[in-house]
Design a protein that fits this description.
This protein has 206 residues and is an alpha/beta fold. The protein has a single domain, classed as Spore Coat Polysaccharide Biosynthesis Protein SpsA, Chain A (Alpha-Beta Complex), CATH 3.90.550. It is built from six helices and nine strands.
């Protein structure tokens, strides 16, 4: 099975978590290709990531945007609008890198995983017999009626819909409030994806 892993966001402790991530995905999968979109990670962290994960493509460029997701109804004070915006942009950017690589190298992936590199796993992924039109999101870490936005996996066409989230569209059409897990849920519903909640135990180690 060939797997693409889309890393988005901060690269904190990427060296410490490398072995855990690979073992949790499964060493039996010989072809695990990493892609990454971060923004302004330190040179030391980026070098650690490149050395260990050997990404096929990556970016660490700054993120600029000309909209404010906090201007829409339902804003919650605890939500860091800048961090949330960068979260979604990084998901879009790393998907673009994957698509660029697939087009250039003419490769096919059986599974695509989207995750934060600060995850520490206590159990393994069970990546077999992935269903069509189905997104797999671990149980837990659902907030304010939304669904976990830290980890997801599925077939390539499903993950293209998942990672290409357009929060401005969702907010302008009243499909969500400006809150990360709620926007994640709205995007999944917009694309009419089925959801399965596998038991993958993990915690974040920032």
């Amino acid at each position: 099975m060939r797997i693409a892993v889309l890393v988005f966001g901060r690269l904190n402790k990427c060296a410490e978590h490398y072995t855990n991530i690979v073992e949790s995905i499964g060493k039996e999968h010989n072809d695990i290709d990493f892609f990454c979109s971060s923004d302004n990670s330190s040179e030391a962290l980026l070098n650690d990531f490149i050395r260990l994960y050997n990404p096929k493509l990556y970016t660490n460029g700054p993120i600029n945007y000309d909209y404010d997701l906090g201007n829409y109804p339902g804003r919650i004070d605890c939500v860091n609008i800048r961090n949330m915006t960068c979260h979604f942009i990084n998901k879009n950017r790393v998907l673009s890198l994957l698509e660029e690589y697939i087009h250039k190298e003419n490769v096919r992936y059986d599974c695509v995983i989207s995750l934060r590199v600060d995850c520490v796993f206590h159990s393994k992924f069970n990546i077999v017999d992935l269903e069509d039109n189905t997104i797999y999101i671990p149980n837990g870490n659902d907030w304010l009626g939304g669904i976990n936005d830290q980890i997801a996996y599925g077939k390539m066409d499903v993950m293209k819909k998942y990672n290409s989230i357009n929060p401005v569209y969702l907010l302008e059409n009243g499909l969500s409030i400006p809150h990360p897990e709620n926007l994640n849920t709205a995007n999944i519903r917009y694309h009419k994806l089925n959801i399965k909640r596998p038991l993958i135990e993990y915690h974040l180690d920032r």
